[in-house]
Write a structure and sequence with these properties.
7-stranded antiparallel β-sheet, 138 residues, VC0802-like, Alpha-Beta Plaits, 41% strand
Length: 138
């Protein structure tokens, strides 16, 4: 299953991430995974939230530019080599990864890797065909 990621575009100024996270917190939304990519002038804050619709509305109402993207949240064992196995699987089956980031799940035995892949349907099929678990939310 795929999951919704919210990408928020920010000027690269001190305090902008604090503003966004405050808006999300006031909306009663829990951030489950977070990543930021930046340049000298702007950044893209990517989040997985427990209530993505509420989070998106809150940041949009606060004047931030944001969009929703479908990504894969793949659950893997939290042990050496687990990510390498998924990377090899994607390489061998032609899944092009645009970016990824990770979050630890509530249990110590699992990690969740968020994959933005070029072809979400193909990536999802490969993951499911090889017995990997995907999450709808976490």
């Amino acid at each position: 299953m795929q999951i919704q990621q919210i990408s928020i575009f920010l000027e690269n100024n001190a305090g902008r991430i604090a503003e966004v996270t405050r808006v999300i917190a006031k909306a009663g939304v829990n951030i489950r995974a977070i990543s930021i990519a930046d340049t000298a002038d702007f950044g893209i804050l990517r989040i997985i939230a427990d209530k993505p619709d509420v989070a998106l509305a809150a940041v949009a109402n606060a004047g931030f530019t944001a969009r929703v993207t479908d990504v894969l949240a793949v659950e893997i064992p939290d042990e050496p080599g687990s990510l390498a196995k998924v990377m090899e699987l994607f390489k061998d089956t032609g899944v092009n990864i645009e970016y990824l980031y990770a979050s630890l799940e509530g249990s110590k035995e699992k990690a969740v890797v968020i994959f933005k892949v070029e072809d979400i349907a193909h990536g999802l099929k490969i993951v499911q065909d090889h017995g990997l678990s995907t999450l709808e939310k976490f």
